[in-house]
């Protein structure tokens, strides 16, 4: 990706750093947006769909690691950490959470630009869609909000994780093993009854007719998929 027109979101509570980055990166043709807190950064990311995010870990409201995790629920935009935290353990935590690279303050602009180019080369070529609308069902991944016919649906954390995983791969079949491993852990890969119970609960909350589901479709003996258009299917 070239600099010309690329959108970069800077999430940092230090005004001098934001000013420095905006001036320097704008000179290379980048379009810049900024946020001074984690929550503002998450909101900006959902609205702007940045091509790259520069993130400070030491934010005043939400820890940077949590911001990474929240972003990675729906976005594959490269994330470069810019932080004074230089311990190896902090870098590992950030990278494990989903960051693409880590630059320690103070930094040189040349180094940051090089890291940005590398991150873009390795970025997954996916389209960020934080809001998925399927008929009367709306799933807002950026804000962890599910609505049916415009009304919010209250889900338990596990119910939400199941729906989120299905939404991130809408139209694709996710196997029982994949869902169990992702949500409960590898030691639960054979516990398919866990899924049946929670899928049943989830259907009762989002399906107009849980006995004839339109959204969460069963692929017998394989797993489940989120239909990209309403359809009826085996409810087992």
Q: Using the coordinates above, name the CATH class of the largest domain.
A: Alpha Beta
Radius of gyration, in angstroms, nearest whole number: 20 Å
Report the sheet with the most strands, covering strand number, pairing sense and barrel closure: 5 strands, parallel
CATH architecture classification name of the largest domain: 3-Layer(aba) Sandwich
Query: What fold name goes in the CATH topology slot of the largest domain?
Result: Rossmann fold
Are there runs of 5+ residues with pLDDT below 50, and where?
230-234
Helix coverage percent? 25-40%
Find the CATH superfamily of the largest domain: Response regulator
N-to-C SSE string, H for helix and E for strand: EHEHEHEHEHEEEEHEHHEE
> How many extended strands?
12
Give the overall shape. Answer: elongated
What number of structural domains do the residues give?
Answer: 2
Judged by helices, strands and strand pairing, the structural class is: alpha/beta
Give the number of helices. 8
Descriptive account of the structure:
It is a single chain. The protein has 236 residues and is of the alpha/beta class. It has two domains: 7-122, 3-Layer(aba) Sandwich (Rossmann fold); 131-226, Arc Repressor Mutant, subunit A (Orthogonal Bundle). 38% of the residues lie in helices and 20% in strands. The chain has helices at residues 15-26, 38-48, 64-71, 88-97, 109-122, 157-168, 176-183, 192-206; strands at residues 7-11, 31-35, 52-55, 79-83, 101-104, 131-134, 137-140, 145-148, 151-152, 174-175, 216-219, 223-226. The strands form three sheets. A five-stranded parallel beta sheet has the order 2-1-3-4-5, with helices on both faces. It has a four-stranded antiparallel beta sheet with strand order 6-7-8-9, with no helix packed on it. Helix 3 (64-71) links the parallel strand 3 and strand 4 (79-83). Helix 2 packs parallel to helix 3 (64-71) and helix 6 packs across helix 8. Mean pLDDT is 86; it is low at 230-234.
């Amino acid at each position: 990706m070239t600099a010309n027109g690329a959108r970069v979101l800077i999430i940092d509570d230090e005004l001098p750093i934001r000013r420095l980055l905006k001036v320097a990166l704008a000179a290379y043709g980048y379009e810049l947006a900024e946020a001074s807190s984690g929550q503002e950064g998450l909101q900006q990311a959902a609205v702007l769909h940045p091509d790259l995010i520069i993130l400070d870990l030491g934010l005043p409201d939400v820890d940077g690691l949590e911001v990474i995790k929240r972003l990675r629920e729906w976005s594959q935009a490269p994330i470069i950490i810019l932080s004074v935290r230089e311990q190896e353990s902090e870098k590992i935590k950030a990278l494990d959470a989903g960051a693409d690279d880590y630059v320690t303050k103070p930094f040189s602009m040349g180094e940051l630009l090089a890291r940005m180019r590398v991150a873009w080369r390795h970025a997954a070529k996916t389209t960020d869609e934080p809001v998925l609308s399927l008929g009367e069902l709306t799933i807002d991944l950026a804000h962890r909000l599910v609505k049916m016919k415009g009304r919010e649906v209250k889900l338990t954390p596990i119910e939400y994780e199941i729906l989120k995983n299905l939404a991130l791969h809408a139209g694709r079949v996710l196997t029982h093993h994949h869902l169990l491993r992702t949500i409960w852990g590898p030691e639960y890969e054979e516990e398919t009854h866990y899924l049946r119970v929670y899928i049943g609960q989830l259907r009762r909350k989002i399906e107009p007719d849980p006995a004839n589901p339109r959204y969460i479709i069963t692929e017998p003996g394989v797993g489940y998929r989120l239909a990209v258009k309403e359809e009826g299917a085996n409810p087992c």
